[in-house]
Every structure is written in C-alpha cells, then in structure tokens.
C-alpha cells in the first residue's frame, strides 16, 4: 500500500515536467503572436497554479495514508506491550535466547531424535518431537476370568505380570516384553534413515504374540486381537489404503502427507495368516481413543455377534485404527516410510528392508550394540552376578524408553496481586514443549523437576547429547523471575492422568534444584578430562549459554526461599492453618510428609534446602571460573559457597551436640495428635473425622526427628573427615534401632514419634519409614567418599558402605525377579516393593550403585 503510493507520486511529478515542456513550445508561438503575450502569461500562471494544487493534494493524500500507517504501527507495538505489562510476571518467559535454539541442538542432532517412543503413558506409543505430531500406538484385548479387557494406557488395574523395556538405546532401538495373564507380547522398535527418507527417517515395529500357557484349549484364548492406530494431532485427514484390506495382496494400510516428512505410508507385513479390519474416527483429542474403539467393537458385537471393527470411517478421519487378528502364536511387522514420492518399486524396496529377515538381522545387531554399550558405560561385568546384570540392563532401558515429549500449557495458581476476571482458578503458562524422562509410566508419566536431576545421573553416562537436550528443555521452562514449575502437566493426555487437586502449580513454591547434581557431575568430568574434546566443547558451550538461566534459578531460590538469618532457607508452601494434618506437609521439598516444625512460619530453617543451595553455589562458582566470568559478575558465588560450607555456622544453626545429629529448626512441639471428632453434617447425620489436636504451646527449637534430612550435611560431604560428628553420623546410619535395615536405610528413624504415622485419615506414611533409593544413593556416595579420605573413620565408613551397597542391590534384584518390576520405595521390615510399580525413575540409581559410579 505504501509502495503503490510512492509509485503514483512519482508518476504525477513526471506529468508536471511534461507541462513545462509544453511551455517551451508556447515560446515559439509567442514570436508569431506577440499581442497575446500577457494573456498567455496569465494563462500559464493559472495553469501552473492548478498543476501545483493537484500535486499538493495528492502528496497530502499520500502523506495522510502514510501517517495512518504509522499510527496503526504504534498502536500495535506500543499498546500491545502495555497489555502485556498487565500479564503477571509468573507467566512471562525468561527474557533470553532459548537453549533449544542453540546450533548444537539443530541439524543432525534434532533430526536423529525426531521419531521415538515418546509416549511413555501407553504400553507402546510412537510420536515425533513436534507439537502437532502424527502419533501411533498399540492396543490389544486381554482375557481375564473369561472376559475381554482392552489394554492401551499403562495402569496397575490391568494386572500385567510384567512389562517394560529390556533394551533401549534412547534413539533408534528398543525391545519390550509384556505379559498379560497367559498372553506374552514382544514389541520391538527400530528407526532407519535412507537417502529417500523424509525428515526423521523411517521406523518399524515388530509385534510378536505368544502364549505363556501351551495347554490352553478355550477358543476365547487362542485368538489374538491387536489394534494398531495412527492419529494426526493436527487434525489432517488420513487416507485408507483401500476399502478392503487384504495384506496378502497389498501391504498398504494408510498414507498421507506431513509438513516435516512429506508423503508417508504405513505398511503391514506378516508371514502368518492375518485378518485385518479397520475403523476411522474424527475427533480433536486422542486421550479417549480406547473408549472409541471399545464402543465400535461393542456395536459390532450387538449387531453381528463378531469381535471386529466396523470396516468404516467417519468423514475426513484423523484417526485410523487397524485390528489385526490371528491364531496365537503370530508375528507382524508394521512399517512407516517417509518421503514417499510415487516411486512404488522404491517404496516396496524400503518396506522390504524393514520387515521379515532384514528386520530380524537389524534388531539382532542393535541388541548386540546395546549390550556392548552397557558394559562400556557402566563396567559391571566383574562386579555382578547374571541376575543383577539383567536388572541393570532393564534399569537403563526403562529409563531411556521412558523418555517422553510433551507440549501444552501448565496451569498456574493466580498470583495474589492479580485480578481474576475469569471463572477459572488458574492462569495459563505460555505454550511450551518438554523432552524429559519420567518417574513411572503408569503413575507419573510426565516431567517432575526434582526427579529429573536424579534421572540425568544415569542418562549423561549413556548419551551426553540426550542429557544436554533434556536439561535445555527444562531450563527453557523458566519464567522471568527464574522460577520453573515443579510438575509439568502438558497436553490433554498428560492432564487426563492427574487428579484435579494436583494440577495447579504454585509460583511461590520451589522444588529441590537437583539439576545441579548433573551439572556438578559434568563440571567434575571436564575438570578430570573424562570427556572427548568434541563432547567437552559441547558441554562448555552449553554452560556458556545456560549460565544466565542457571544464575536466575539460583537467585530465585536465594531470594524467595531465604530465611531470617543469613545462610538459612525454608521451603515455602506449608499450610499453617491446617486442622487435619498431623504435621503440615512440605510438598515443595520433595519429601512430602517428612516431619518438619509442627507450626510453620518464617522462622523455620530447613537443613536440606541449605545443603541444596550449597551444591548450587559450588556449581555456579565452578562455571564462572570455567567461563572466566567471575570478574564480570556482581554475585560472588565463591563467597556464598564458603558461607554455606562453613562448618561452625552449620553447627550453630542445625546441630544437636548431645547426639551429633543435624535437624531442622522451627516453631515446634512434639505434643500434636490426631483424634476422632464427631460432628453433625448436612442432613442431620453424625460424622466422624480425624482432626489435629495440639496439647502444648510450640517454641522455637530444633525439630528432633532423625532421618534423611538429618543426613544432608553428611550427603553433601560437608563434615570434615576427622570430626567426631562424622563418627556420630556413622552411628546413626549403622544402628539397627534407628535407620539401618537389611534392605537399605529408613527414611525416618524407628525412634521418631512420627515413625510410620499417618498424616491424615486417608494419607498413609510416605517418607516416614520406607526405603527410598535416591537418598540411599546419596548416602552411599558420601560413604564411598569418606572411605577414601584419610581420617580415623575411613575403615568404618568402608565397612558400612560395603554392607549397605550389598543390601540395596540384593533387595532390588530379588524384588525385580519376584515381581517383574522396580518399585517406588521398599518396605523397611521385609524389603517388599511398595508404592508405584514400574517406577524406573530414581530407583534406577541402583545401576550406578552396582557400577559404583558416584560424583
């Protein structure tokens, strides 16, 4: 518009010049008619003034249009930011370049991780690392007590005997075994990239269906029914391979086009006799896909008495489900080929290279490479029995196979100073992506901030590039204040797995900054030249760009969670008005119901947070020296680290000299109970509930509960190796009447007044006795450290280390072979797995314990 105005202005200027040329012709005519000179001069002046008037009018019109454009521009760029200023800071992204835009995360690295098993909440799910992806997955019909049950989403109620990855390299290969009553499924995943492939390459899935019981006779148990589906999150229509699917004649199931990968096709190949049916759906969400399939099957059974899909589709389907039925045993290969451009012969050749014998050979090759890399990374061949090695491989495979990709917006509770004009009780974070490991596929299939630091202690040892990618994604979730939401519930699928009361994230609350654990490991590795030159350069470059975000994160903790006394900190978020909790939970600490001061207030000093801040300060100091930034910074991290590691100050603030134990400090009384109280509720009914009863006035004091929190200075290796306090700490650890068991160290001392006590009527003990692997790993790491430090307790530390390590490994391995799973926690009396099963989050640290790999 502006350009056309300029062009018209130039044309008008040119026309006035033409008029001047006409005036030259008049001068010739004036020699012939001198008596008309004055008339012509007046006429010329009139003509010239009219031309100038025309020029001015049109110029003014153009200037006016241009001015309007400027005003419009100012409205858009000044008024809009003014509106943005009204948006709370909590949902304002950190004002710095995103780490995931770094060159090291682009190109070949990004493409190599494009496709993957990035849907950990389902038994088998594949998607791309892009917000609106083509996703695929597997369902099957299980039989229990003579009844059919659909399997799709990982859940304990399915009562699978075992499931999980036995091998997975995090990139292009994985093998999984699932046992559902008498049905055994083996699923293998493999990626391949050829010169004809589209972006991200091709992939194949092999599903091997066997019977665990060869003596079955019931017809209901001799046929297997699998359901493999494709769903386009972008809503684009998927094309069916044909109105009838006869894979003996044509292996094509579906096709379509994606912006990233171009044309694509899905093929099904098998040497067994298969019956294939299909159904197509049009729906904006896929988290309810199981219900859609079951409704379709139910309708078919009612109409025709047959357990098969309807062989029909809704208009413009964005989901296609293929039912694959056959007599057990059977095996089938499903292949996704990208970049298809109409060369049918070449596509058939590519499909052939990813099915049958060719696929078998490639899977065998990847399995051997996985085994070789496992030994290269963890060096456990001479340390473990075969039974333990099996568990070790399952540990790293499930950690890598549990990595997911999520996209969506966190729900943040409203800041106190924000006027809520909507009915919602939350404000949405900006749309964000997250590539992360998850603690548990059935229970916690999403990102947890404090869990992730422990996860990365394994992953960096396996693949440093994946580790840095995950760290970058997490740090990119930081807001302008340096806060990161502790639980990432992104997208409808993730949201469907979370109870409503746990969805909102609170911007005043932190979470242990465990990412500094892996930062510390990587910095130590650079210091000790453990990385190849290319890896060292990549890590250093990452820290150079991540420093500003790590600094903001540190400062958020150092300002918002600081206590009244210099060098003290306390976790925010405890409820000081509760009438139902025995001891108000500290969810932000990650240790939930671990006993703290009975009456929360700002006088509290939390020992564990102080030690986390020391770790963070040490890391920040190291990075500044690595990057030679210390002279440019206002913050002296060395001074902060020196303050927090000062042994005398630590003892003054947290030590009970009587027994050499460290404790929290706060407003506390031990005389708090839960008692039954009767009250009349609506309708005149009598109701009983457990309420909190305080029998004495609290006072500021140390909180006398020995447990994991008490050992944080020990875990942080702050205690000098020749200190009498170290001897007392070893007493607490090794005393069977306090923390020691044959299966690991208890979370809370058996002598504590809150040992194994419920916190509420429906809130059983969580961190009040059971054994947790993450804390035992940190304790073992400290024991290993003190067993190598000169001092009077070196030998004792070694003896305790050997016994504790042996107990932990033996118990986890025994539980795995008995139950088929790793567990969230372990019972301190009998060693039995408790809590969430298939918990391959920080329980996977048992592999580092096997490898004796500590910081």
Provide a descriptive summary of the structure in words:
InterPro entries: 6-hairpin_glycosidase_sf (IPR008928), 6hp_glycosidase-like_sf (IPR012341), Glyco_hydro_63_C (IPR031335), Glyco_hydro_63N (IPR031631), Glyco_hydro_63N_sf (IPR038518), Glycoside_hydrolase_63 (IPR004888). This is Mannosyl-oligosaccharide glucosidase. Pathway: Glycan metabolism; N-glycan degradation. Its EC number is 3.2.1.106. There is one protein chain. The chain has a domain at 121-385: Beta-galactosidase, Chain A, domain 5 (Distorted Sandwich), CATH 2.70.98.110. The protein has 20 helices and 30 strands. Strands 1, 2, 3, 4, 9, 13, 14 and 15 form an eight-stranded mixed β-sheet that branches. The chain has an eight-stranded antiparallel β-sheet with strand order 5-6-7-8-16-12-11-10. The two termini are 64 Å apart. The protein is α+β, with helices and mostly antiparallel strands and 855 residues long.
């Amino acid at each position: 518009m502006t350009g056309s105005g300029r062009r018209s202005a130039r044309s008008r200027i040119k026309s006035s010049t033409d008029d001047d040329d006409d005036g030259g012709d008049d001068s010739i005519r004036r020699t012939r008619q001198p008596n008309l000179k004055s008339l012509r001069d007046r006429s010329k002046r009139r003509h010239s003034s009219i031309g100038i008037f025309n020029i001015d009018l049109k110029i003014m019109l153009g200037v006016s249009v241009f001015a309007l454009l400027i005003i419009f521009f100012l409205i858009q760029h000044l008024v809009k930011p003014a509106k943005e200023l009204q948006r709370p800071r909590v949902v304002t992204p950190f004002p710095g370049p995103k780490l995931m835009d770094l060159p090291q995360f682009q190109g070949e690295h990004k493409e190599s991780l494009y496709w993957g098993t990035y849907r950990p909440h389902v038994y088998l799910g594949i998607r791309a690392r892009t917000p609106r992806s083509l996703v695929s997955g597997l369902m099957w019909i299980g039989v229990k007590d003579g009844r059919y049950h659909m399997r799709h989403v990982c859940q304990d109620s399915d009562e699978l005997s075992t499931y999980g990855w036995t091998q997975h390299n995090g990139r292009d290969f994985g093998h999984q075994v699932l046992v559902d009553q008498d049905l055994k499924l083996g699923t293998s995943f493999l990626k391949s990239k050829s010169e004809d492939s589209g972006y991200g390459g091709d992939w194949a899935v092999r599903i091997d269906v066997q019977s665990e019981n060869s003596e079955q006779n019931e017809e209901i148990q001799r046929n297997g029914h699998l359901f493999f589906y494709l769903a386009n999150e972008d809503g684009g229509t998927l094309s069916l391979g044909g109105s009838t699917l006869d894979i003996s004649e044509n292996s094509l199931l579906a096709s379509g086009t994606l912006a990233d990968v171009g044309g694509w096709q899905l093929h099904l190949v098998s040497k067994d006799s298969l019956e294939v049916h299909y159904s197509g759906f049009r729906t904006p969400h896929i988290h309810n896909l199981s219900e859609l399939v079951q409704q379709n099957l139910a309708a078919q059974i009612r109409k025709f008495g047959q357990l098969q899909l309807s062989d029909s589709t809704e208009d413009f389907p964005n989901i296609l489900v293929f039912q694959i039925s056959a007599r057990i045993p059977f095996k089938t290969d499903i292949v996704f080929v990208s970049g298809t451009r109409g060369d049918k012969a070449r596509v058939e050749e590519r499909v052939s290279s990813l099915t049958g014998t060719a696929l078998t050979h490639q899977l065998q090759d990847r399995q051997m490479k996985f085994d070789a890399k496992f030994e290269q990374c963890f060096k456990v061949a001479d340390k473990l029995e075969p039974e333990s090695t099996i568990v070790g491989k399952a540990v790293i495979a499930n950690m890598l196979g549990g990595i997911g990709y999520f996209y969506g917006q966190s729900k943040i509770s409203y800041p106190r100073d924000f006027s809520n004009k909507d009915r919602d009780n939350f404000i949405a974070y900006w749309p964000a992506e997250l590539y992360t490991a998850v603690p548990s596929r059935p229970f916690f299939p999403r990102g947890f901030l404090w869990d992730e630091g422990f996860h990365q202690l394994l992953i960096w040892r396996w693949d440093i590039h994946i580790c840095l990618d995950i760290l970058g994604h997490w740090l990119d979730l930081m807001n302008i204040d340096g806060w990161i939401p502790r639980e990432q519930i992104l997208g409808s699928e993730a949201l469907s797995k979370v109870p409503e009361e746990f969805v909102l994230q609170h911007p005043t609350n932190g979470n242990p900054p465990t990412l500094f654990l892996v930062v510390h490991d990587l910095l130590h590795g650079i210091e000790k030249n453990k990385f190849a030159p290319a890896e060292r350069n990549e890590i250093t470059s990452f820290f150079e760009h991540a420093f500003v975000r790590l600094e903001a994160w540190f400062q958020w903790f150092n300002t918002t969670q600081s206590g009244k006394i210099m060098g003290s900190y306390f976790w925010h978020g405890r409820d000081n008005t509760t009438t139902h909790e025995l001891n108000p939970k500290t969810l932000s600490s990650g240790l939930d119901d671990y006993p703290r001061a009975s009456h929360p207030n700002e006088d509290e000093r939390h020992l564990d947070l102080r030690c986390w801040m020391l770790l963070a300060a040490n890391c920040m100091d190291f990075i500044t020296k690595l990057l030679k930034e210390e002279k440019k910074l206002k913050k002296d991290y060395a001074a902060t680290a020196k303050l927090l590691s000062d042994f005398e100050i630590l003892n003054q603030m947290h030590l009970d000299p009587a027994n050499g134990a460290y404790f929290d400090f706060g407003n506390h009384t031990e005389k708090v109970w839960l008692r039954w109280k009767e009250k009349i509720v609506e309708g005149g009914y009598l109701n009983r509930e457990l309420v909190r009863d305080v029998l004495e006035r609290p006072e500021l004091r140390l909180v006398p509960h020995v447990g994991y929190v008490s050992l944080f200075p020990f875990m942080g290796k702050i205690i000098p190796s020749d200190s009498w306090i170290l001897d007392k700490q070893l007493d607490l650890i090794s005393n069977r009447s306090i923390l020691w068991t044959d299966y690991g160290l208890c979370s809370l001392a058996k002598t504590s007044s809150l040992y194994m006590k419920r916190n509420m009527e429906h809130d059983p003990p969580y961190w009040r006795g059971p054994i947790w692997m993450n804390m035992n790993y940190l304790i073992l790491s400290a024991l290993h450290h003190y067993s190598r430090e000169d001092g009077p307790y070196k030998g004792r530390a070694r003896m305790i280390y050997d016994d504790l390590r042996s107990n932990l490994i033996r118990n986890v391995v025994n539980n795995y072979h008995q139950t088929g799973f790793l567990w969230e926690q372990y019972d301190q009396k009998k060693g039995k797995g408790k809590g969430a099963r298939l918990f391959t989050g920080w329980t996977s640290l048992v592999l580092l314990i096997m490898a004796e790999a500590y910081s």
